[in-house]
Write a structure and sequence with these properties.
Length: about 210
Amino acid sequence: MASVGIIDYGMGNLHSLGKALERVAGGTRVVTSYDPEVLLKCDRLVLPGVGGVRECMRELQRLELNQMVIEAARKKPMLGICLGMQVFLEWSDENGGVPALGLFPGKVTRFPDPPEDGGADRLKVPHMGWNRVHQTRAHPLWEGVPDDAWFYFVHSYHAEPACPDHVLGTSDYTKTFACALARDNLVAFQFHPEKSQNAGMTLLANFVQWDP
């Protein structure tokens, strides 16, 4: 039986993600584990997460999962969600700078704080809530997802990929930013598909079936 593994390093709402994947998995088994050997046996992997890159990298290293992710990224379909997307890049500017996994060239930077005199309508950091996602190029994971569909975001930092060809989708919050990345067998979303109703469930279903 085919399987999709959720990488459990203690940072993320694994229950809602697991339930969402089970809803769309069909005959695919959903496995949640922190054991590198168990995860490497899965056919595809998901790296979720909420919080900061420094804590994420510390936990991945403590559990000996960082090298597993890098190894698996060479050959398995892999999805990064929210913080999982951010650690796919090389570097985060938070806390004076934190090296990450380096699966995509580029860095993660914080949204600028809004001016204090912006009034009640000023955009606040973190970016929290529903926002439209513009698809910048075709990809199998977009199949059945309308362009400019609404997705749910919670984040203060965003990706700045070095290669424009890796950008799969953008959104607007204080500026236009990359909220979806893809290359080869890797794909990543800053938003939470598991919290994004039909559009998010379609993305997860497409990932379970994706054969890059």
